[in-house]
Amino acid sequence: MFRQLPYYAQERFPLKEERMRHGEQIDLRPVAIGDLDQMEAWANDPEQRGEFNLFGLHMGGWYARRFAETGLLTDEQGTLLVQTKEGAIVGSVTYRRVRHGSGESNRVFQIGISLSPTYRGRGYGATAQRVLAEYLFATYVIERIEAETDVSNIAEQRALERAGFTREGTLRRAQWRNGEWHDLFLYSKLRGE
């Protein structure tokens, strides 16, 4: 299926230990070529996506194409897998760069998470988002990380707060999902918090 893959797309398990970010319950690691089938299956699975991450269908092969181009990990955006200490892949975290003004100093990252239903409610989400924030602060000269969640997504609000994020306000009718507009809460975490 792939022809000349970049060096990062050719790696196989086991991943080198230094490429993982460790938390108490879970680890975050880059996507490997062997993960792409699972990610493609998750992309259009409503149960996996959950009620708060349903934004329409994804074109088949999207992850494979992006992986071949970037390894799903760049300075602009990235996807890391959430893996239990036993090695089970339980979901993913993402980040994308946004700006609040011109200039490199106004760069922040927005993060997101998606966990498999059977692994929700175990504290993995809070740990994964805290570890992702630690990674971003250690890697980039940024002062702020943001997350948004539906005002009715109580589990994610609690996870963000356990991960050290602070609710800043409400983004009114900011997200179109399931045929209607939804309000979102905006959370942030500053360097050193």
Description:
This protein is an alpha+beta fold and 193 residues long. The protein has a single domain (7-190), classed as Aminopeptidase (3-Layer(aba) Sandwich), CATH 3.40.630. Helix content is 24%, strand content 34%. The protein has helices spanning 36-43, 46-49, 62-70, 124-139, 154-162, and strands at 21-22, 26-30, 77-84, 89-99, 107-115, 144-150, 166-177, 180-190. It has an eight-stranded mixed β-sheet with strand order 1-2-3-4-5-6-8-7, with helices on one face. A hairpin with a 7-residue loop joins strand 4 (89-99) and strand 5 (107-115).
Overall pLDDT metric: 88
Mind describing the biggest β-sheet? 8 strands, mixed
* Secondary-structure element order, N to C: EEHHHEEEHEHEE
**Helix content range:** 10-25%
Radius of gyration equals: 17 Å
| Class computed from helices, strands and strand pairing | alpha+beta
Global shape: globular
* CATH architecture identity: 3-Layer(aba) Sandwich
Task: Tell me the span between the first and last alpha carbons.
Answer: 45 Å
Q: How many structural units, i.e. domains?
A: 1
Enumerate how many helices there are, as a single number.
5
CATH superfamily: Gcn5-related N-acetyltransferase (GNAT)
Strand order of the largest sheet: 1-2-3-4-5-6-8-7
CATH class: Alpha Beta
